[in-house]
Write a structure and sequence with these properties.
Layout lengths: L3 E3 L3 H25 L13 H26 L7 H8 L1 H5 L14 H23 L11 H31 L3 H6 L2 E3 H7 L1 H8 L3
Antiparallel strand pairs: 1-2
Helix pairs in contact: 1-2, 2-5, 5-6, 8-9
Length: about 210
Amino acid sequence: MERLIQRYPDRTRMNHWLVAMLFVCAALSGFAFFHPALYFFTALFGGGAWTRILHPFIGVVMMLCFAGMFVQVWRDNVWRDGDGEWVRRSGTLLRGDEDGMPAVGKYNGGQKAIFWLFTLCLVVLLVTGFTFWQPWFADAFPITVRRIGVLLHAVAAFILVLGAIVHIYAAIWVKGSIRAMTRGYVTTAWARRHHLLWYREVAGDK
């Protein structure tokens, strides 16, 4: 039986899935106010009034949970020299030739880009959300700031949803990735194939 390697400890996996669940709730409640055709999503949260009340609180809790995960994984997502080369050659991967890709550490350039995109979008959502959060904070800002905040909030949310779609697709596409985040372990073969430098680091293989 092939040896397994721990990729994510329990606290990271639990934090990840908590953020994911809160993201779904925040996205659906936000969609309800984005366009009248999506207002039916308010039924999931007890109606329009409750959706308006809950949405910002869900967002703040999601940001706090993400901050906890950020502390755990940001060092592994620091951009390295080889990450730019990985991104430049990502077309090779999309054509199905993973053997032609540079060796990477725990995360490849694409994963790091998504991580920092998520971080940026969540910060923008948090900051702009306060500018029009009624009745607590909105009155402290002039109407122009509130309008700009609403616009930036919508743009950041749209980008975040697209990034989440890419993230989910990539996790499904690379067989074994979902198991890593549900069970915490990957096989040595998976580690060698997809994250060779990380495998050498954790296995002490020079």
